[in-house]
Known about the structure:
This protein is 38% helix and 25% strand. It is α/β, with parallel strands linked by helices. It has a 6-stranded mixed β-sheet, with helices on both faces. It has a 4-stranded antiparallel β-sheet with strand order 2-1-4-5, with helices on one face.
Amino acid sequence: MTEPREDRITAEGVHKAFGDNEVLKGVSFTVPRGTSTAIIGPSGSGKTTLLRALNALDKPDAGVIRVGGADGVEVDFSKPVSNDQLRKYRAQSGFVFQSHNLFPHKSVLQNVTEGPLIVQKRPREEVLAEATELLGQVGLADQRDKYPYQLSGGQQQRVAIARALAMEPAVLLCDEITSALDPELVGEVLRVVESLAVDGMTLLMVTHEMSFARKVSDRVVFMHAGRIHEIGPPQQIFGAPQSAELRQFLSALDG
């Protein structure tokens, strides 16, 4: 008997403004469990703001977001939200930034174990064993005692992925995680993300790597001017775009 399908993220009417600039204009969508979703669109369309809003790094001005499925946490951001609510809500998702944001004074292993030990207060032996396994998963088991400055940009980003996974999130949010890397290092990071997708991790990724979005994603979300214009499988989004905005965006890429 197959496990019932459930959504890992459900967002309804999400708004976010910075001063007079309304960046998100009522965004609604879902991310099904065990799927990989890519968010694409032109600069300024609201992609990163949406991702940050879903983790409440940039707290939405309005909208209801549920993260974590049936056993997850739902927050109505049009009402006051307590710090305890935010903490429980943020614990449902892991976030990997454009720049890795590692602790420079801590080793690779310490970076990965910090959250589970300090925030989740899990048993040390259990955390160390899981961190070692995760570093092996991202191809860095032999780098565990090094410090971030001793690693390449691609290696640092892979540590950041392992660190996010160590918190056992329901969904992994990735914000343009290759944009700060030299071209020759992009592939090693994307291969890690691809392996996570194959393993059934629920992923939501803002990316400018169209070939990667086409290859790895189950669904692609196209954003324009603070709204979602199209959602569909890669073959539809890239092969049969419905809106003039998406056709123009893809045409500009080809040009």
